[in-house]
Batch of 3 targets.
Target 1
Amino acid sequence: MLTASPRPDANHPADHGHPVLLDGAFDFINTLHFDDGQATDDITSDEGVADWLATHGMLHEGTGGEAARCPDGLERARQVRSALRGLVDATAAGATPDEAAVATLNAVLRSRIVPELEVGPDGLRMSHRHLGDPVDGALALLVGPIVEELASGRPERFRVCANDECRWAFFDSSPTGRRRWCDMRSCGNRAKAARHRARARSRVRPA
């Protein structure tokens, strides 16, 4: 089953509009993550994808079963995740993103959610309709914050953890904008310890 990444609960919206925060998009990217250099993929089935999307507020309650029956949901989720990862990696490195990755993201954005007014017992409210199937609509919601940040935010703060055995993708929201590690308590401390050992070795001279 697809498991949620360790990020704040604020990324799990429950209202009707399916808002997705930037960290929520990075959560999705990091469902493929590395522990001591070993890859772990949290996406293992169509049902797992639907469960993760529902848990993160991107599917209406009760539609998880419907989404799980969508053909190739697992494959589509992995394709979009790979394209998002490629976009973040290229941006963090100051490189040009792969055209195929951009085409994949453009295709899923066409399944966006369109806002519209809805008349209810208490008057008008803002609602929406889906232009694609539930999985594609949810994936479009995940792509949106990354695209918006590229267009009008601070994409220069897209980061990849400097620990080569981690490579966690994240947005640097620190005041200085100089964060290098996904977590100073883990990867940052490992790097500090490695530098300390290297300095200690350099001080040792043969007798």
Target 2
Amino acid sequence: MNTTAVPSATTRVYQHLKRAILEQIHADGALLSEADIAATVGVSRTPVREALLRLQSEGLVALYPKRGALVRPVSAQEIEDVIDARRLVEVHAARRAWQRRAELATALEPWLELMVEARERGDVVALMTADRAFHEAVVDAGGNQLLGELYQRLRDRQMRIGVAAMRVEPERMDRAVADHTELIDTLRGDDPARWRALVERHIGVAAHHLRPAR
């Protein structure tokens, strides 16, 4: 017997819209029509409204009665907040994860392989998805469940910001693969200071590319 739960209409709309926003299919500032969304997903307007309310609570859209939903642009402050939160969580987690470095290096290898494959295809979304999973594994290896949950909340914002930035500079895909390869190689060594320094450098380089030009 198949016990797989069928997603509700609201869930299907929510997942469809969230993916489109995070992957920049719906660009920042786009105005989305309830009628168009309902027709695309094949549902009535009621689950569309419910899904949009959920997305509004997550800060991804702003609702305007009788006009539709505006995809909220990512602000410079939001980018700074994400960078700051990443540094606080990831550097701390990386320090704690060193004790499990051999196990962690093995766990990270499949994500690096997916990044390499995505780079070869020029698939920014797939590369960023694997990239986020790579860093999530490092945070989880730190052993602090609360920080892991906090990092999960950052994941969508990182995905959205990262996809947009990497599409502007697709050559960064090569740098991403090289950086993550170096991180795994360092885990297989015996220099914890170098490991922490690389994690901090990696976040710093990402911050440089994510910040808007000034």
Target 3
Amino acid sequence: MMPDLAGIPLVEVRRGVPLAAYTRFGIGGPAEVLAETSDAGSLAEALRMARACGRPVAVIGGGTNLVVADEGFPGIVLRYTADRIRADGARVTVDAGAELQALVDFAVERGLKGVETLTRIPGWVGAAVYGNAGAYGHSLSERIMRVTTTDGGPPRALTNAECEFRYRESVFKRQKDWIILSAVLELDNADPAELRRVADEIADIRDRKFPPTMRCAGSIFKNLLWDELPAQVAALVPPPVVREGKVAAGWFLEQVGAKGMVRGGIQVADYHANLIYNAGGGTARVLWALVAELKRRVRDRFGLELEEEVQYLGSSAR
């Protein structure tokens, strides 16, 4: 039995909403119920009611790294849309539903250094915290003081250490019930013009590699940490490929012929082996099959298990 989420103040509820419209890939079927709110207390109440009813429950954000099954999600999807950003000196508090680019622009305009290298990474701040987003040698976790979460009860603040951040990892990937509400960042004072120059240069590079209109999640697989590679594999990697202690997953994919692969409407870019996109008419089932094929090729050739950055929602998308 479905709970009466519409009875919770500040919660908007709709049924049968196609989730493709809420993902950057633009694929996926409908949610049985989609409930949205920008109020933390209402989200907590919705979480409690949704979980108590026994139906499957999922919480999503901007959908940049989300692959939804073609048949959709047979349960309740919650979406927390609070997007406030405010500064107290060099300390910035940002809600989980704020666009990451909005946070970057907010900081740059105020001469606050520390997130400018994240420019043009799509998606919301909550997901950026969840996946410890980063680029150009820096990760969001370097600037996080604390993260406020809820599991359906009162808000709980976690310190940076309690978030257990690692490369593209956090405690939230293991504690799925802990929903991110906001984060507090400690930034540094700097010249706004210099920060804008850095951000604009990065934006130009990323826009050429990942055009804003491309239906993709950016890089599909995590890069690999150099010091964790088996010795026999590390010996095969050309030194210029090792950057900031990591080897691009794209290098391994390129060695197994990934560039330009096509499966239905899903394609691998011919200029970037770690970029998979929906060229039109793509499905979650075909995307998953292509991801599985690429993982198999790298496993057979190098004995490595690539790990996706994307998250899956629904049975056929796993």
